[in-house]
């Protein structure tokens, strides 16, 4: 019997990359899944059909602009209408912009804070009451190693991810005496996704370096194990946190960073 049989999960930012990997793993464990994110609608519909065919669960797609609090709230409400409940909420959606503070565009700051941090508040606020009533709920916030340490030129992203960890701790305390309701964060180091693979090629051209040197000496300079975190590793941790075996994790942030924060 799959560990999440009959549960209903909403994963934000799940049409590609980390979110898609998590959605696939939750579906493989028996959870019905709502995908959310941007992309070509025909391709997303094919993706839903593919996951449903592979796992035998229900898979739906609901778009939402998570820079809007109203849309983030409505995403949860629509997911509950579609599946009957949201037992598992994975807040994964995020964007990035790299710039020195004095040159950082104000609109980029506002959007990064809205999508990476504020959307976690709105979706969690909408999902928690029903989780408490049902006696089961899992909220997993995909933070970042940058929620634990900082890097230059990423002020909005670092501020947002630090905020996600603080928010996770607060909700963990607020749900501590609720039956089987937990809120946790996962803090990955650099993860090899299609987006990152594109960045490797671009950095190699800009620096006149081999892709191997870019990976080791530029992108993974701060990551002691010198290898990317695999999406499957994050997905496995998310499944654990959502399972019965994960019920005593609460308000915590799990670093999957190859030793980055051990320094």
UniProtKB/TrEMBL annotation:
Superkingdom of the source species: Bacteria
GO biological process: monocarboxylic acid metabolic process
Any Pfam family: adh_short
Molecular-function annotations in GO: 3-hydroxybutyrate dehydrogenase activity
InterPro entries: 3-OHbutyrate_DH (IPR011294), NAD(P)-bd_dom_sf (IPR036291), Sc_DH/Rdtase_CS (IPR020904), SDR (IPR050259), SDR_fam (IPR002347)
The family this protein is said to belong to: Belongs to the short-chain dehydrogenases/reductases (SDR) family.
NCBIfam families: PHB_DH, PRK12429.1
Protein's name according to its UniProt entry: 3-hydroxybutyrate dehydrogenase
């Amino acid at each position: 019997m799959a560990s999440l049989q009959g549960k209903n999960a909403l994963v934000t930012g799940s049409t590609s990359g980390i979110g898609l990997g998590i959605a696939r793993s939750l579906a493989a464990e028996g959870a019905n899944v709502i995908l959310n994110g941007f992309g070509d609608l025909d391709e997303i519909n094919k993706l839903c059909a593919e996951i449903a065919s592979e796992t035998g669960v229900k898979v739906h797609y609901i778009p939402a602009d998570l820079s809007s609090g109203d849309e983030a709230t409505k995403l949860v409400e629509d997911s509950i209408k579609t599946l009957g409940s949201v037992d598992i909420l994975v807040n994964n959606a995020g964007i990035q912009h790299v710039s020195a503070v004095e040159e950082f565009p104000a609109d980029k700051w506002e959007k990064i804070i809205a999508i990476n941090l504020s959307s976690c508040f709105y979706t969690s606020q909408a999902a928690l009451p029903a989780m408490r009533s049902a006696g089961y709920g899992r909220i997993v916030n995909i933070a970042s190693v940058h929620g634990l340490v900082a890097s230059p030129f990423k002020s909005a992203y670092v501020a947002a991810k630090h905020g996600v960890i603080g928010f996770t701790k607060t909700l963990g305390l607020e749900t501590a005496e609720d039956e089987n309701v937990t809120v946790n964060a996962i803090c990955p180091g650099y993860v090899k996704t299609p987006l990152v693979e594109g960045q490797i090629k671009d950095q190699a051209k800009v620096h006149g370096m081999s892709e191997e040197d870019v990976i080791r000496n530029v992108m993974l300079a701060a990551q002691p194990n010198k290898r990317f975190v695999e999406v499957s590793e994050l997905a496995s941790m998310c499944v654990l946190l959502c399972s019965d075996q994960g019920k005593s994790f609460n308000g915590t942030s799990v670093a999957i960073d190859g030793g980055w924060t051990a320094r």
